[in-house]
Amino acid sequence: MRWRGATSRFSLIGLVIVLAAAAFLPVSTPVRANASRGPIVIDSDAALSGTGTEADPYVIGGWDIAGPTDPAISIQATRAWFVIRNVTTIRGDYYEGYRGGGIRLLDVQNARIENVILQGTNVGVLVQGCVHVRLSDIEFDDSPQGISAIDSTDVSVSGTPRRSG
């Protein structure tokens, strides 16, 4: 019986030492780890693959897009459902008056843009001649003009657009 009590005490002491040591381990914070790539240009539904329905939209996401071109994402003449999410555009070099980044939708139907960060853009998001566009949780960093909707219907913005820098 005496050994059993001693073993329990050693086990308890060992557990306390392990927990105390764990308190000093570094804790990592979640980081948005997107893959890098150049600008995205889609000029029709034919450039997309998959179903593209409201229940199963095409997804453009998980990218860090850098470069001197504006916009970083350009989509036009589409009717299929798609979503742009978890994308960061990274300011490129100034090039003949342009600043890299931004998203441009021209003659598009059925689009969602959510949880994006747009850095150093002339116009963060341009929606022109579009129908049924939803924008949510967008952060603008050093972008003089955030969202511009021209000749478009059924465009909504939810979540407060965030500005930094």
Task: Kindly describe this structure.
This protein has 165 residues and is mainly β. The protein has one domain (35-159). 13% of the residues lie in helices and 48% in strands. It contains 1 helix and 12 strands, in the order αββββββββββββ. Strands 1, 2, 3, 4, 5, 6, 7, 8, 9, 10, 11 and 12 form a 12-stranded parallel β-sheet that branches. The model is unreliable at 14-31 (pLDDT under 50).
Helix content class: 10-25%
For the record, give the distance between the C-alpha atoms at the N and C termini, rounded to a whole number.
68 Å
Q: What is the count of distinct domains?
A: 1
Mean pLDDT: 78
Unreliable runs: 14-31
Secondary-structure-based class equals mainly beta
The H-and-E topology, N to C, reads as: HEEEEEEEEEEEE
The count of β-strands is 12
Radius of gyration: 24 Å
Overall, the morphology is globular
Report on the biggest sheet: 12 strands, parallel
Report the sheet-strand fraction.
over 45%
Count of helices? 1
Which helices and strands, and how do they pair?
Elements: H1 2-22, E1 35-37, E2 40-42, E3 58-61, E4 63-67, E5 73-78, E6 82-91, E7 103-119, E8 123-128, E9 131-141, E10 145-150, E11 153-158, E12 162-164
Parallel strand pairs: 1-4, 2-5, 3-6, 4-6, 5-7, 6-7, 7-8, 7-9, 8-10, 9-11, 9-12
